[in-house]
Every structure is written in C-alpha cells, then in structure tokens.
UniProtKB/TrEMBL annotation:
Coiled coil: none annotated. The keyword Isomerase does not apply. Keywords: Oxidoreductase. This is Metapyrocatechase MPC. It comes from Rhizobium favelukesii.
Length: 540
C-alpha cells in the first residue's frame, strides 16, 4: 500500500529535481509602470488605502521615480511598486506580460468596496465568481486591471488603516497575477519547478497555480493575442520570494543549469534579487525577504523621504528637481491642466513667487533645464515644457530641414500654439506674467527669439542660451521694455550667428545683455553665474 501511495504521488507531483519548492514561497512584489504619478498616488494610497512605504530614485535609471505601496511595514507579499514614466508613452498589454493584478480583501468587504467605488466615481465590474472567490474588477488611472478578490485566508500581518479605509476592509496583500503566455504548458512548468507553485484548478484557458503562502499565479493561454509592448499602463515584472541570499543563489544556479536566461544578481538595497524570463517571455524576479523596507527609515515614517541608489548619476539635490513631485491625498498639490504642451512644475520648499518657463534643446525634455535653473534661482518655481516636433524620435520645437535651415510654417504654427499654452497656463495656474522669466536653450531659445517677433507682447524677460535667428523674414515688432540675456559659446558652431541676433533685437528696442563663455554648445557652471548676475541686476 505504501508503494502504491508513493507511486501515485510521483505521478501527480511535478518534477522538482533541484528541491526548490521549499526555498521560495509566493509573491514578493509586482512592479508596473505609470504615466501620471499624482493620479497613481491618489488611486493606490487614496482610493485603495495602501500605504506608501518607499519612494526611491530608480536603480536602473536614477532619474526615474520608483514608488512602493504595501501594508503597515511593507511586508514582502503586500508590495505593489510603480516605475514612474511621467508623461511617457503608453505600452500595450499582450502575451509575454503580466496582464492583471489581484489584491486580497476579506470576502465580507465586497459590499464596502462596491460603495467606495461609487463614492469615488469609479466604475467596477462584478462581483463575479473566479475560482470560487468573489472578485471586483477595476481599472486604475493607467487602465491596468486591478481585481479585489475575497480571499478569506490571505491576511497581512500588519494591515494598514492610516488612509481612511477601516482595517477590517483594508487591502491585505497581493492575491496574485495573471500571466499571459503563448506557451502555457512551458510557462506553468517553469513557475512550478523554479518558484514553488503547485497546480490548483483549471477554468477554461486559465490554469491556477498556488504557492505555499497562499497567493496565486493564473497562467492564461494567450495564443492568438498580440504581443505585449513595454510602456505606461503595463506590468514590468512579478517578483517571487526567497527567504535569504543563500536560497537566492541556489535558485540562480538551478536556473543556469536549466538553461534559463537568468541575469546576474542585484543588490536592490531592500532586497537581493535576480531576474529571468520564463519561456513565454514574462520577466520574473526573485527577491529576498530581507533586509526590508525599514533598513533606511523607521516604520512610523516609511515612505516620507526620497532615497537614492548607490552611486547615482547625479546628486540628491538635482534628483529632487528632476523627479516628478506629488502630494499625498488631502495635501495641497498642483492640479495639472490639459494644455497643448506636455509640461512639468517644480515647486521649491520656499518659493519666492518668480516663475521660470523652460524650453529645452533638441533631444531634451521638460526637465532638462531644471537643475541648471534651480542652481541659478533656488527659490523660483520652474515650469518645464516639452516641444511637440520630433526628429528621429527626439523632441524638438519645430521641424529642421538642414542643420542651418528650418521649416518656417512649422515655426509659426508652434509659436502660435506655445503662445496659447502660456495664456492657458497663466489663467489655469494663476501665474503672474510680470514675474515670468523665459529660458531657452538652442532649439528652444530659437523658438523664443522667434516668439519675440511673432507674438511681441508675450515675452518680457528671457535668457537665450546658444541661440541663433531662424526666421527668414522678421515681422516688425516693438520690443521696448523687453529685457534679454544672450549667452553664446566661443567655440560653438552656432555662435557666429549670435551677434546678428543681438543686433536685430537691439534694433527692435529690446534691452540686450550678452556674454560669451569659453566653451562650446554645452551648458555649464559658467552659464549659472552669468544668469545669476543678470537676475540680480533685473531685481535691482
């Protein structure tokens, strides 16, 4: 009888030559991408009532904000994290991705969440039965599918009740994810053999796998779906749990032995990790439980301070200017308006009321000039704007025909659109036009000097960095009362056009201060000191 029982178990249990089931247990976190940080915070910390337990600069890209939501202590298994691609391009959900995120709540809380959806003006579907559980189906601001699943036995050790959601109704932890794959059998086998999941049930084209921790991975047969494409509104990866670094290394070795495309081990400060792609293409991470979210800040103040990874490409001061700002629910915030140009505010801790409108050069974006101008004017509010023209995928302000000739109609149309943007920004954000200083670099500076003639009453103070005239014909414009600073580079290929621009501006009545740095087209500390000196003269 013992022999027969052993044979049955052998036939019904997936092979596990490395003995890895005892080494990993469940989901550590799920990482997704968002396009609007404020809307994301309002949904996950506000509506869902999860705790923001960590905000960091990205480990792969320090200029990218990374937010972690979870329970009171940021327990492994409760974490949902977001890479913030502010105003980034949307992705496409398809096979080779995680398609749905499921969060565990008490089954008795379904009615509470139905009512909360209505009070927040959010559309929900359900409750529907999924594998015997009541499930509410929602979409977050990026259209990511978020399911609230009534899972009675899946509890957080420290549910968060600090966001207005009663603790008995709180999101407990991650219930699971849905993996979209064109190779369902191979994907299932990979997750079972290497990450400790076991088959639980099948419904149609979905196999449900369950971990020792009780969370689930639904393997969905996505044959015939389109392929996934990275971008906002998609998942980056799902991370499974390893108790410690020793277990992480064992799984890493087993993946290599199995021929999986495992990457090198990574130190993510809050956990050690490795990555691998399962046969269907979904990115999987394995992360250790420790050291955890409290390694660099105490539990009472989790999530209130920005942290940076080791050896970031820039310092914390500059990163705070570059990264998108947000407010927690109930706090004052910038309510962004739908205006013709993508734009970003940076508000310093003690603003002095001045506003700098920043126009980047070719290949830059709305944040490119922020560190430079923050250094020049630390108390100024910065409004960075992104040009709408593109050239080989990089932002510009107008179309270029050759390096020294430009599409005249495009300059005029984009100048008109920018003037409308400024009018809308002044009205929507309550800006004082008299306290606005425009700063343009290269391509952005050239749009500015064109604006002076195409819309002569718009710009009254401006800094033109590495600028040249780009209009073929200049309309008459009375620029009296317009104060300008022109900074050119001695070795800049465009520098020879600066004197022509200065002469024209002066002839039109503008007050023009000019300076030449010893370098070329790039910006640097010399520009900062010249701008600071000019600003002090404007105030005095």
């Amino acid at each position: 009888m013992t022999f027969i029982l052993a044979l049955i178990l052998a036939l019904t249990t997936p092979s596990n030559p490395s003995g890895l089931y005892s080494m990993v247990s469940g989901i550590h976190h799920v990482t997704l991408l968002t396009r609007k940080v404020q809307a994301n915070v309002d949904f996950y910390a506000g509506f869902l009532g999860m705790r923001l337990v960590k905000q960091t600069a990205g480990f792969e890209d320090a200029t990218q904000l990374h937010l972690f939501y979870g329970d009171t202590v940021g327990s492994p298994g409760s974490l949902v994290t977001f890479l913030v691609w502010e105003d980034g391009s949307p992705g496409r959900v398809g096979h080779s991705q995680i398609g749905e995120l499921s969060l565990a709540i008490d089954p008795a809380s379904i009615g509470y969440w139905l009512t909360r959806c209505m009070s927040f003006g959010l559309r929900s579907e359900g409750p529907a039965d999924e594998f015997g559980e009541p499930v509410l189906r929602l979409k977050d601001p990026d259209n990511i599918i978020v399911k609230l699943a009534g899972a009675r036995d899946l509890k957080s050790p420290a549910a968060w009740d600090g966001a207005g959601v009663p603790v008995e109704h709180a999101v407990q932890r991650v219930r699971g994810v849905t993996m979209l794959t064109e190779k369902p059998a191979e994907s299932r086998d990979f997750v079972e053999r290497h990450f400790g999941y076991r088959f639980q049930a099948n419904h149609g084209n979905i196999d449900r796998l369950v971990s020792q921790s009780g969370d689930i991975v639904d393997i969905r047969d996505a044959q015939g779906f389109w392929s996934g494409a990275p971008g906002t509104g998609t998942a980056d990866h799902v991370a499974f749990r390893a108790a410690d670094e020793k277990q992480l290394h064992k799984v890493h070795d087993a993946l290599k032995e199995d021929g999986a495309a495992a990457t090198n081990l990574h130190d993510r400060k809050y956990f050690e990790s490795l990555y691998a792609r399962e046969p269907g293409g979904t990115l999987i991470e394995l992360a250790t439980d420790k050291p955890g979210m409290t390694v660099d800040e105490p539990q009472p103040t989790l999530g209130t301070k920005l942290f940076v990874p080791k050896d970031p490409i820039t310092d914390l001061k500059d990163l705070k200017v570059l990264l998108p700002q947000f407010s927690m629910p109930g706090e004052p915030r910038v309510n962004y308006r739908d205006l013709p140009f993508v734009h970003r505010f940076y508000t310093p801790p003690d603003p002095d009321g001045s506003v700098f409108v920043l126009l980047h050069g070719s290949g830059g974006n709305e944040t490119t000039l922020m560190p430079l101008l923050h250094e020049a004017a630390p108390r100024a509010t910065l409004l960075g704007v992104r040009g709408r023209a593109t050239e080989e995928g990089i932002p510009r302000w107008y179309k270029r025909i050759t390096p020294f000739s430009f599409d005249q109609d495009d300059i005029k149309s984009e100048a008109e659109a920018f003037a409308a943007f400024i009018e809308g920004a002044v009205s929507s954000y309550g800006l004082d036009p008299k306290r606005i200083v425009y700063v343009g670099y290269s391509n952005g500076a050239n749009l500015l000097n064109s604006l002076l003639y195409l819309h002569p009453n718009l710009v009254h103070k401006a800094v033109l960095l590495r600028s040249m005239p780009v209009l073929k014909t200049f309309p008459h414009a009375d620029l009296k009362g317009t104060d300008l600073l022109v900074i050119s580079g001695k070795t800049d290929a465009y520098g020879k056009y600066a004197s022509e621009l200065e002469t024209r501006l002066k002839q039109s009545g503008a007050t023009v201060d000019s300076d030449v740095i010893s370098g070329g087209h790039d910006l640097g500390d010399a520009d900062v000191s010249i701008i600071q000196k000019w600003l002090s003269q404007q105030i005095n």
